[in-house]
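Hi everyone,

Forwarding the result from last night's run.
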Amino acid sequence: MSSSTSEESNEEALQWFESGVNAMNLEDWNSSVKCLSHAVRLKPDELEYREQKHRSCRRKFQKNGNVSKLSRVKLAAIRGRIRSANVREDWAALDQLAEDAIAIDPWDARTFAHIAEAAARVDRVEIAKYAWTSAVKIDGTNTAYLRSFGAVLQANGELEMAKSCFEKMRVIAPTSPIAEDLIRAIDIAALMEQRGFAKAKNSRDVAARQEEPRPAVDQRFDAFVTLAKHHTKRKEHEKTIEACKSALSIVPGDRSIQTRMEDAEVAFLRQQAMDARNAARQDPKCDRRRETATQLLTRLSSREIQIHSQRVQENPDNLLHTYYLADCYRRASQLETAICLFQKVCADPQLQTEARIAIGECRIRSDQAELGRQELEIALLEVDPAAQPRAFKLAHYWLGRLYETRKEYAKSVEHYGNITAVDSQFRDVARRLQVLNTITWP
């Protein structure tokens, strides 16, 4: 493109942008979205154009989930073309298709993730950072998004912000070694920058800087941390606990090590409880085995509640911790307490759907079936089966159980069928369908 043509395109983009902003001021959201979409198409590297367009899209639809059936059909077609553009590595097409999708549904985290990926591939760093921020705001529990966002930040030299992304990953998946490895890499990069390794011109410069002695206590601590990570990967829970205790004896109060040790303890207790329960099932007439299994399950539940209660106290604003604690109470059949905590979690848009489904389950199990049904049906309106498969299956499962109890077998089979269409091995759905097929019902 010649310089004159480029200038004309920039000028036209600016005119569309100004028209879009004027429409925003008049609260004419349809016109605003159309004008700003043109501006983004003509000037895709201008961040402000996108920000204003996406703001208009959200105002146009008012609330998440307010997408018509016709729009959903259009979205499905666009997503198919997005997949094709991704395979071809056609980043310009991927970017534009994702923008088209946002004009229909501005609350889809996957669409912002596509924009972020396309932007990163063509070195539009600020747009990639903005799009990943948007994706993470919508779906804050998606570790893949956090990892990609952190990678962009790390490549841009924003190490502390990158580390924050990886630390969130660790909270979401505490037993996964990936976040720990990424955090350690960030710490090493920061240390290299601090000691000047990153600016070293050759190996002799690096060697000269490495002559600075490192305290032996740091070396011992790192050794135990490395050992703990090794045992975690191998699921050697007792050895992980011992390595963490050794690390904590050197650096008392290190919260990341304390968290790793607690998670290993829970994993060890869970394994013991599951082994005991399996043994009791194999010999159902043995009272001693049943009693042992019950005691271990009770001990596991008590320890989980204790650990997550402490984490909630330490981070009361982190509703993910509250979600985990509520889930502990749910599994312990302390349903009223679980409901109260899940209701608090509903304040977080990223966790709201899963919390609603859990509330629905708890209400059904506590003889509040109609309230449970309402919660589950509301949740299903918000669930994307592709992005939230577990939530989709759980909602249908408990609705199936509810209608089965009410002897509304046709509805029950419909809900169970929605599950088997995507996962034929989910829980005991196959067995329940088999039983229902033997029942005579109108």
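Residues 345 and 351 are 7 Å apart (CA to CA).

Cheers,
N.
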